[in-house]
Amino acid sequence: MKRVVVTGVGAVTPIGNDVKTFWQNIKAGVNGIDLVGAFDVTDFKTKIAGEIKDLEITDHIDKKDVRKMDRFTQLALIAATEAVENSGLDMEKEDPWRVGVITGSGIGGILTFEEQHKNYLEKGPGRVSPFFIPMMIGNMAPCQIAMKYNARGVNENVVTACASSTNALGTAFRHIQYGDNDVIIAGGCEATVAPTAFAGFCNMKAMSTRNDDPKHASRPFDLNRDGFVLSEGAAFLVLEELEHAKARGAHIICEMTGYGATDDAYHITSPMPGGEGGAKAMELAIKDSGVTPEDITYINAHGTSTKLNDMFETQAIKAVFGDAAYKVAVSSTKSMTGHMLGAAGAVEAIVCAYAIEDGYIPATINYETPDPDCDLDIVPNEGREQEVEYAMSNSLGFGGHNASVVFKKYRD
Predict the structure, then answer these.
(1) Is 162 noted as a catalytic residue in this protein?
(2) Is residue 251 annotated as a catalytic residue, yes or no?
(3) Do residue 30 and residue 95 come from a single domain?
(4) Which of 76, 344, 345, 401 could hold 340 in an S-S bridge, CB 3.0 to 4.6 Å?
(5) DSSP letters of 14-71?
(6) Do 238 and 276 sit in the same domain of this protein?
(7) What is the predicted pLDDT for the residue at 412?
């Protein structure tokens, strides 16, 4: 099996429109949650979200092309472009059939769906855009990235709810391990801060209603957590076969060593009590890496700030790590970014990659009241300068989807 390394990263998030700003704000404990500005939330129970700020799309994508893309694709193209530039990849020197694109988006173009459905109801079928379908469908994000870079290798979009981009990274990892591709631009994108999606989550009673205090609404593992905060964003990693990366003199951020995926087969939205499915995904990813739980320095938890997720994920970590569960650092950066659904896993994979390269473990901010059911070392409120040898990222999605990936410090 071939070794896989990370040579480039890019991100557009509620706490930074490029990866450098994003990481600086993660280290600083900056919170990106505020009152929703995209639409009128007067009649909604939840009125807060993690929206991207001060991003002029046409500074990155030609105006005529912007009109043919849903926002989730626009964000994907911006983040993927940064990742490719960050990697130093020169497509003129690459075999295009050996370069792929794999994205994860759980929902896709819901903004387009809402806009065009409104056109249909108010103006009739003749006013529905001819671009409606190719703007809405989830595979348009990898399509647009591939067209920009003439990347003709594997090209697909993974749909596993909030585990989508972690599964996308895992799928890309396998394609490179097996020798099918040399390079894959892999990550996730989501733009669901939209009225219908927002209403659906509100009526599930899944989101925080701490509307009077947005900055403290996302509080993973805290006793007084009351739901997740919906966010938008995109993140991409350039995954590359080790010898290919070395041959072109690429800077290697870290190595990807393991991937595990399971399903609870239990409930459409609730995790399995005890976190058995998530535990198995972690176990598989650690085994795939050829290490033991004691070797993992840091876990970026799914940590959504919902009652059930945080408790069951804690139980899952204990089941896998045993006594070592109290020694591994565990934090949820969703306390800063909110929950980007299908994009979350890729964003948090970048956190793991930089935690390794920078020797820094980010905090779980907004932690005020300990929950006895979540009694791990969650790195409360202040991050730590600490050497990180192995870092793991967990993602758990509606439908019982569980995915874990492991990264390590690169050594030749």
Answers:
(1) yes
(2) no
(3) yes
(4) 344
(5) TTBSSHHHHHHHHHHT----EE--SS--TT-S--EEB---S--GGGTS-HHHHTTS-H
(6) no
(7) 87
